[in-house]
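Quick log. Single chain, no ligands specified.
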Amino acid sequence: MDECGDTQSCAPEVEFALTRKARLKGLLRAPVHDRWMVLAPCCDIHTIGMKYALDVAFVSRRGVVLTAFRNVGPNRRLRNRAAALVIERFADPGRAWLVPGESISIARICADQKIERERNQERNQKGFQL
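-> predicted structure:
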């Protein structure tokens, strides 16, 4: 049991991979841990070079889990073109994972961050145009 009173109710710690470099790296070479990695924007992942299996979920811009996979081994490629982001963690068969149709708020946060980043880039580009 954890501090929330059961084994699966607490929200996980989350790391964000919001740059191209961070998304390419993902969990590669990371020590095994319980945190979730949010890759945004992202609709396509690979497990080339991974030493450990992953649990993976593709999430829409509205925060709805579109597809979810458990125990994805090395040298695989997964994609869902409708996804705005991907959530991954080191596979843990003993713990619950996201399921298609489930709604999660972390996706909305990432989508909002992406929109804000794009708006800032557009403003900066307009500012340099003479």
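The first strand starts at residue 14 and ends at 17.
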